[in-house]
Amino acid sequence: MIIKAKQLPWLIKVAGTFLNWFLRKRFNKMIVNGVDIKSNHSYLLMCNHFSFWDGFWAAYLCWNVIHKKRGLEGFYIMVLKKQMQMNPWLKYFGCFSIAPGTATVNESLAYAAQLLNKPGNLLLMYPQGNLESNHVREIVMKDGINHIVPQIEGKCQLLWSSNLIEYFESLRPSVYFHMLDCGTNHDFDFGRLGREINVHHRAAVQKQFRFTTEE
After folding, report:
1. Does any domain span residue 65?
2. Which residue of 85, 106, 120, 136 is surrounded by the most CB atoms within 10 Å?
3. What was the pLDDT predicted at 14?
4. Contact, 94 vs 104, CB < 8 A?
5. Which domain, by its residues, includes 126?
6. How many domains does the chain have?
7. What is the pLDDT of residues 27-45, one digit of tens each?
8. Inter-residue contact 94 to 53 (CB < 8 Å)
9. What is the pTM for the complete model shown?
10. Given this model, what pLDDT does residue 23 score?
11. Is 59 among the domain residues?
12. What sign does the CA torsion over 187, 192, 193, 196 have?
């Protein structure tokens, strides 16, 4: 049996204001290269996974790019079941469990699709499945998304963000969010999604270079 989310109803409104203050105290700049957000959709947000800060940055994107424009009803994250069991309070922050290699995996994937049937809900996922450096040039995606998206019955916008950090002249790092509109669940193709994300990610890395050109 999976552990389902029981998100606190006031969380999105209260947490966003605190999060902006918290992150701006710790980072030099938070620069978003955004995309158009579709109305009357749910949202599947995918990001590269390389840092302890990943969840905070994704929440920053959700608040400032999506919630302020379209309004979010729910914010959800798929988390390993052992982490949920160690930290049961996570379910109140929109987390639900997945246990790879067990019979409950399909239940977790179906639950994720069910959440995305409702307009205004957002699911955060890290398709790499593992922590890797933000300097990698290729994003290797696990196939969990390929099982979730075809089960979504409503309208869902698929979003990607390549999140990169740089210091340059500051003692504190700056965070750069390079977003990509990946279409919707109705024109989803897993192979094409992976190719488009990798083209975008390599271009995002290249944008971070100031004076260097790679062959």
Report:
1. yes
2. 120
3. 76
4. no
5. 11-208
6. 1
7. 999 999 999 999 999 999 9
8. no
9. 0.91
10. 94
11. yes
12. negative
Please count the helices (runs of H) and the strands (runs of E) in the chain: 7, 7
What radius of gyration, in Å, describes the C-alpha atoms of the chain? 17
- pLDDT per residue as tens digits for the range 77-92: 988 888 889 989 989 8
- Residue among 75, 51, 47, 64 at smallest CA distance from 158: 47
Distances from the Cα of 131 to the Cα of 1, 127, 211, angstroms: 27, 10, 28
Residue 6 pLDDT more than 80?
A: yes
Q: For residue 86, is it within any domain?
A: yes
Of 95, 15, 62, residue with least CA distance to 163: 62
Tell me what the mean pLDDT of segment 161-176 comes to.
Answer: 94
What number is the average pLDDT over the span 99-103? Answer: 85
Q: Which DSSP letter does residue 187 get?
A: G
User: Cα 159 to the chain's mean position, in Å?
Assistant: 8
Tokens found for residue 177? 């969010």
pLDDT beyond 70 at 59: yes
Q: Exposed, middle or buried: residue 113 (CB in 10 Å: 0-12, 13-18, 19+)?
A: buried
Please report, for residues 70, 104, 162, 208, the alpha-carbon distance to residue 135 in angstroms, rounded to integers and kept in the order given.
Answer: 32, 34, 11, 11
> Which residues, at least 6 apart from 137, have a Cβ–Cβ distance to it below 8 Å?
201, 202, 205
Confirm whether 4 is domain-assigned.
Answer: no
Q: Does pLDDT of 211 surpass 70? A: no
